[in-house]
């Protein structure tokens, strides 16, 4: 089995690039952020504070997650319900970041994620795939971009969706989430020593995609 680990902060273009690369290679794409988002959503719906360990931990046995590939799209099911769209809300992203700091949540997902990589060729994207989940991954990529470049992309996406939010607010949000994800005690966001770093600040989608393809070709031969 081969596995490709792609880690990096939110907004570097990870999921779009990862999805396309997985498709091209014929690998199963696993978006691990979606799993944290589903747990965040569960906590929000239950009226709990997603940062409250004592409230979130007892919920874990009640949670069953399933990922399914439907026509190349990853769908995520939370206790049988398709929550693929619901987990994309901004508020759920923040809740995901909060539950992701809870060690029991990370332990719960670790087994699930490793199991997926044992069964098939996967391209997994997240924050700790190269460092914790798949330390023996065949290829490790750390995909990043400056906070300003990531905020600008998010702002443009929002504009296209008709969401009016000041660029400064988006930038604040990006920085806050970066801080939260890289300063937590449990599996913080960091580059694995053997990961290849790709900075997409000055690259467009096609250039970023070519850079990733080249790395994979060099590593997998
Ligand atoms: O990539 P994303 O925005 O969907 O991730 C949502 C949150 O989940 C993010 O704030 C960090 C967390 N996360 C994590 O801690 N570890 C992962 N492997 C993936 C996501």
TrEMBL record:
Signal peptide: none annotated. Gene3D superfamilies: P-loop containing nucleotide triphosphate hydrolases (3.40.50.300). Residues 4-215 form the Cytidylate kinase domain. GO terms for molecular function: ATP binding; dCMP kinase activity. It catalyses: dCMP + ATP = dCDP + ADP; CMP + ATP = CDP + ADP. It is found in: Cytoplasm. SUPFAM superfamilies: P-loop containing nucleoside triphosphate hydrolases. InterPro entries: Cytidylate_kin, Cytidylate_kinase_dom, P-loop_NTPase. CDD domains: CMPK. Belongs to the cytidylate kinase family. Type 1 subfamily. This is Cytidylate kinase. It comes from Candidatus Faecalibacterium intestinavium.
